[in-house]
Amino acid sequence: MMQTAEKYQAALNATAVLVQEFPFLKASAVTISKPEYEAALELVEYLIDHDDENPLIHVLADKIEAYENAAPEFAQWNASLAGLPKAVAMLGVIMDQHHLNQSDFKEEIGGKSLVSMIMKGERKLTLDHMRNLSRRFGIPVASFID
């Protein structure tokens, strides 16, 4: 078994290799550039496809979120989501990211008219809807709860 100091050194070495390959992983890199943002998205997608429990996903998600919160290209989108209930905003994000429309949620929510009413704030997502969406898209149910 490795001694504690050897384990720590192995962690430092592994981190140095990662940062050399992906400079945007540096702790000091609070903001990242658009090319780094795009590289981070690609890496997250790869990790999710090959090791969806990898702790690096959370580090990358923080960098991606910081970029999306600050980049002018996302300002209008962020403003449109800011005033919405969390469930509606999350459903909108899912639709946008997966290129879906209101007809694509028959199994999780129901018909297009129900999804439309939810998006307009006339109805709310039920806990069953949230669970179904959580299963389909691999996100926590809590993502839909204010």
Notes on the structure:
The chain is an all-alpha fold and 146 residues long. It is built from 7 helices and no strands. The protein has helices spanning 4-21, 34-50, 56-70, 75-82, 86-97, 112-120, 127-137. The radius of gyration is 19 Å and the shape is elongated. The relative contact order is 0.08. The model has no long low-confidence stretch (mean pLDDT 89).
Instruction: Flag low-confidence runs.
Output: none
Query: Helical element count?
Result: 7
* Major pleated sheet: none
Give the amount of beta strand, in percent: under 5%
The end-to-end span amounts to 46 Å
> Tally of extended strands?
0
Order of helices and strands: HHHHHHH
Radius of gyration, CA atoms, in whole angstroms: 19 Å
Helix content: 55-70%
**Shape, principal axes of CA atoms:** elongated
Mean pLDDT figure: 89
Structural class: mainly alpha
Architecture blueprint of SSEs:
Elements: H1 4-21, H2 34-50, H3 56-70, H4 75-82, H5 86-97, H6 112-120, H7 127-137
Helix pairs in contact: 2-3
Characteristics:
146 residues, mainly alpha, 62% helix, 0% strand
Quick recap:
This protein has 146 residues and is mostly helical. Helix 2 (34-50) runs antiparallel to helix 3.
